[in-house]
Queue: 2 jobs
Job 1
Amino acid sequence: MVAAAIERDGRFLAARRTRPAQVAGRWEFPGGKVEPGESEEQALVREIREELGVGIAVGRRVAGEWPLGEGLVLHLYDATLVDGEPAPLEQHDAVRWVSLAEFDDVAWLESDVEAVAVLRADRELASDTMDTPEHAARLAYSVERTFDVPIELMWSAWASPQALEEWYAPTDLSVVPGSVVSEPTAGGRWAVAVDASSYGHIAYFWGRYTEVAEDRRLAHTMSYSQQESDFLARDDEAEHHLIVIDMEPRAGGTWVRFAQYGDMPTEQAAMAQAGMESYFDSLAAYLGRTG
């Protein structure tokens, strides 16, 4: 079973059930069953269209899964509206937008209570790592994959300076030897230079870790320059975005998501996302060599 945490302006869409009788009047994150041949994301798009008459874009899966009985489990996904205004069409008689602060005032389905708690904790943790309201307000892009490796190896790939030096670049570029700094503790430094001389420059990145939860999450600020002097100075007050790397064990290996928060024009965000896909290809090659 899949459900969507549809977010708009810091509020989440809840729908009130009408059936079966034992759950009528309770609220839930809308969703439904995954049909044969569907991915979970495809099922969510279909179910939300059928139940609420709107289109959604499905994002990352929220960490965790919750038993529903009869061998079923609930998976919750981030989502945003792409068209329409939600209205109850099937199995619901009302919808409402609920803030995190209002979650405790809602009579949730028993099966949704734990998912609601995890979603709130996830959002509050993300909010704690974002050092400005602008970061919290805007996700520029994200990339996620599942790799057939244990989570300990995935954590090392992102946290170890030796590992980062081996893979942290697009497939057609490379890391400048000796440039990587990774001190995975809150306030620790993070830095890497990518040799993009084939494009006429070196890409310099630096920042500080703002959140470190081993085998779960890394977050750090990230400034960028093409000037080596800026890289050597590593000014903490330089303009920066926020990077959040989430990971968790899943069937088939370890899921990881890279998200960049901050203002970025749409076309630039699309290019950055494509570039990070290439970084993930480099990560896959590295994990293939070491896993």
Job 2
Amino acid sequence: MDMGFGELINSIFRQKTVYIPALVVVVIVLIISTIQTYVEYSREMEREKIRDKAAKKREEKKKEEERRKEEQRKREQEEKDGFEIIDLDLLIEESEKWEKEVFEKVDPVIVIENISMDFKVAMQNVSGIKEWMIKKLRGKISYRTLHALSHISFNVYPGEIIGIIGTNGSGKSTLLRIVAGILTPTTGRVKVDRSKLQLLTLGTGFDMELTAKENVYLNGAIIGYSREFIDEHYDDIVEFAELKDFMEEKVKNFSSGMVSRLGFAIATAGDAAEILILDEVLSVGDEFFRQKSLARIKEMIHGGSTVLMVSHGMGTIIDNCTRAVWIEKGNFVMEGNTKKVCEAYRRMYG
């Protein structure tokens, strides 16, 4: 007679003496079955881990192969572009000797000695001076130190065009502002005749509530132009910026491109100084205006001035600079031949 599992259990409880051995057997069978199920599950999980590990290895192998192919492609492209494939450590060693060999009999016009720059950055957000004062009095304002530059040293010689390269946030613009005298370094010093120096940067001192015409005079005064100079060059500034119909409009209504064009036209209105410092002045406007601004900058930097410039356009650095300095995350990496330094940078960051 067939008996279901539930009926079997009920019978065991009704007739304890008869079915006790059977109950023991059932319990043993259940335990064995549970153990077998667990063992099988564990084996399946282990097989799944092995499959995942194998798949991960295949994926890593595939990525490594793609990376090698990409490196090979870059090397071939660099060779095609005329870059010499060299040993990076050897390049660093050569760059340390380069300056002495080339300029040992010439006095530098800019000496940058062991420059470090630290900023104190508040770790709490405050909405205004009142909240800051209250938190300050209560001792609830704390700061962290941001190391923008660390022990930077190099010289710039007469007639050189030095390009400073590095990723965003590496301290390039901070260094230019220290050279120009806008910032005072935490340690180190800069030797330069600032009466012969001109810093060109875009949009410094713009008041968005003023008209474009008013900002020409304001921005020009900040750069160091006299009112007579601005009066004399006003029409040229407007024409170059291509903003003739917008000079009575408030700058806050301008697009970022229009503001950049106006800033560039003001910054480059005067004759080139003996020492030019250019901070990303070529990242302006549309393609047509960039070509026009590049032509003006080339006139300035190739007119006999000593130039220290920052640009993220590697082509601009290679085409115009006689030497390159690579600064990365505030640290000096190398200096020397422009193509070789740019090649090393490209190999590092692609």
